[in-house]
Amino acid sequence: MSSEKKTGQIQKENNLGEYIADSPISDPKNDKFQRFYFSKRIADTILQRKSPNSIVIGIYGGWGEGKTSVFNFIEHDLITEPNIVICKFNPWRFRDETQLLLNFFNLLALQLNKSLKNKYEKIGDVISQYAEVLIPSFSLVGGAISVDAGSMTKKLADRLATVDVAEHKLRIEEILKKEKKRVVIFIDDIDRLDKKEIQAIFRLVKLTADFQFTSYVLAFDDNMVANAIGEIYGEGNQEAGRNFLEKIIQVPLRLPAISKVALKDFCFKQVEKAIESNKLDFTQEDASSFGGSFVSFFLPKLETPRMAIRYGNSLAFTMPLLYKEANIVDVMLIEAIKVFYPKLYDFIRFNPNYFIRSYNSTASSQSRINENRKNKLKQEVINLSGLYFDKSDDTIEKLLIVLFPILNEAYRNMNHTENYYSKWHNAKRIGSPQYFQRYFSYTVLEGELSDVEFDNYLNRISTMSQDESIDLTINFLDNVNPNFYINKVLHKLNELPPKLNLVLAKSISGAATKFLISQRTVFSISTPLGLAAYLIFKIIEEQKSEIERFQLTKEIVINISPLDFSFELMRSFRNDADKDPDDSVITHKHFGELSLMLLDRTLESLGDNAIFEVYPEQVAFLLSKTWMRLKGKNSLMQYIKGILNKNPEKLYSLLKAHCNFIHSSGHPDPYYGDLVKETFEWLDRTYESEYLYKIAIGLIGEQDNYKYVELNNLQTDENRLKQFIYFYRNKIDSI
Q1: Angle, helices 328-340/342-350, rounded to nearest 10 degrees
Q2: Are 164 and 177 in contact (CB under 8 A)?
Q3: Residue 21 has pLDDT above 80, yes or no
Q4: What's the average model confidence in pLDDT over 431-452?
Q5: Sign of the C-alpha dihedral computed for residues 605, 509, 422 and 372 taken in this order
Q6: I want to staple 684 with a disulfide (CB 3.0 to 4.6 A). Which of 36, 514, 549, 689 is the partner?
Q7: Contact yes or no for 435/326 (Cβ under 8 A)
Q8: Same structural domain for residues 432 and 502?
Q9: Residue 77 is part of which domain span?
């Protein structure tokens, strides 16, 4: 990993920002959802009660709706009242029912001992005695629980002989009445317990709820609790559980619904915190785009403050990791999908084929494949919609089209040109094939190109000399996939200043050895070398005048780029030469001059080697289209005879170099094919075929009959020679 990449990662790690604590609030000043008035009404109900009878208040609400905050608000109003004793019991701390019951009484005893003035008989002691009688084999000693099965049997028998449960209960109530105290017992998070623990809590409440001067405030999800209780009471279903709750809960209260406006504002505040704490650039355009999409696609599923906090924390984590490496609005939307539609998120993550590939094709076989893919996508979206809405609801469909515009082809029969793909790429959209995986890996994967590093690279080469920019480009390409680099430059060409494009053209050409990692195939433009050559051609094409285009091409082809790259670049100009002369990037005359200069440069590089041995794939361009056409057949044959007269066996290489170089899926390696009739005709036009024939006969001897034998991928040099002899004799015989 480069030092630049490491530095970038460290900076990101240091800018992760602060996460939002998912904790209840206590101060009414922080009440965002007008729950304080609801809580105050409950507190007032407890304070204003005249009846000494106990009351059990149930606060119903789902996870994350704010039940604990309501508890805190109630306590806020009660804690300053001198006649109120608050007892907050946490049922999570105890492993079994007996421990739960005993610790409840122990907590109650301790809280009352702290608050009551009676010096003659501590109410805690009376409660302890009550618990001992009520729950055999256990005692409360010094405020802690202990088990003594042997000694406690006698102790329990002694107590039962002298005093009964009713008497203890009466003494407790008398003390509370005398002291003018009311006990308020809060029990929260009941719905987070397992089923047995939930059942134990409500047995406790049922057992103790008839104490005078006591109020219970219980918070739970009534659906979950009803299911748990229903398993042991009545018919064992939720309805049976609700019937049981109705006997226990005297005042059932459901948390007031939070307005969607308030939830939206709260959620957006969490988003703002994530952006501000990480010091991220966020434009007004970004805000409008995100806000519109969030309201349309996610607000209907934003049901609790906890969901908003979870979303804010998710952004606080992901946005710094992908800052300037992905589209910030798309990051926010895909993270929203992860929080609000988790099944949809998994479907997108594991099925990129649906979201980054075109659905349009002219080939009939591919068209059928695309149609099948389109139908599968639509069915999956319908099924996913059914998880969150009605199957006929189009919210999920519209959301996916916003994130992945290519889906317009599947749903609206649109076509997208290459300009669209460039636009998505330049915007770093999740729908761009080059960026999709980044949104799920939260990093620039090994071999990929960091946008931050690339921008830094552009800034540096813009101020360097030519040699310095070439060296920097070579070093830069040591750490990235050449294809990613070329694609990045291609997509940015229209955005970069013309002067910087010129610097890039020369830098890439000088570093072209870095693009030779893949051998050229029949689809040479798909290789790094082919892509780089195409890129340079596009930069040259943008120069204003033909003479400027020629001079830049000459500088690159002759002076800067290695020979292999020069050949590849000239291939682009050869294809361009077929156009109308007025539309060509350079004139035919200038193309001929370049070809001759490149031929001379090639010959200078050979030493004692033959051009068709060192550059067999270039023989058509170098020998036929350049040497013979521009310098004449006699000049070419003088060169060929100089080689073959000295070493006749080099004819094997000459003939092979003119045969088709074949890439086949059925063969592991590329190979040279047969010397076919068209090849012979090319050889006959380019060289003196009679001279080549005499050399061939000298190599394998005179024979009466040479048959044409096809060997395809098993072809040999000797058989190609026989194929040449065969075609030559047929030519002579036909004259």
Answers
A1: 120
A2: no
A3: no
A4: 89
A5: positive
A6: 689
A7: yes
A8: no
A9: 34-254
Token pair 């003119």: residue: 658
- Of 441, 470, 490, the one marking the end of a domain is 441
Residues 6+ apart with CB under 8 A from 177: 52, 212, 213
Rounded to two decimals, the pTM is: 0.70
69 and 206 share one domain: yes
Is residue 139 within 8 A of residue 148, CB to CB? The reply is yes
Chain centre distance of CA 88: 44
Asked if residue 265 and residue 250 are part of one domain, the reply reads: no
Q: Are the beta carbons of 278 and 306 closer than 8 angstroms?
A: no
Q: What is the CA radius of gyration of the chain?
A: 42
* DSSP letter (8 states) at residue 712: G
Are 535 and 572 members of one domain? yes
User: What's the pLDDT score for residue 131?
Assistant: 67
In a domain, 621, yes or no: no
For residue 331, give the amino acid letter.
V
pLDDT in tens, 121-137: 566 676 766 666 666 53
Shared-domain flag, residues 412 and 541: no
> pLDDT digit string (tens) for 544-571?
899 999 999 999 999 999 999 999 999 8
What tokens appear for 412 in the block? 């609206």
Q: Are residues 232 and 272 in the same domain?
A: no
Q: Residue 615: pLDDT band by 50, 70, 90 thresholds? A: very high
447 phi and psi, to 5 degrees?
90, -25
Q: Which residues lie below 8 Å from residue 94, measured CB to CB, with a gap of 6+?
A: 100, 103
Using 50, 70 and 90 to split pLDDT, how confident is the model at 667?
low
Percent of the chain exceeding pLDDT 90 equals 41
